[in-house]
Amino acid sequence: MGEMKKITVEVLEGVFKSAQDYTGEDVRAALRKLASIQAQHEARKLRGKAKFSMTSQEMKYDRE
Q: Would residue 8 count as lying in a domain?
């Protein structure tokens, strides 16, 4: 994990509670999820552009 950065953010209480109720997560988890969504979006842009020399079965075997 990278270096930590401490921030202070002012958010309306109702907006914060609504977002937390919707996601069920704290701010750190929500930021990690947002970064994950961005990475998935970037990976989807590569769909069909990478050629694999192994089948999915070979990749599963390779993990063991």
A: no
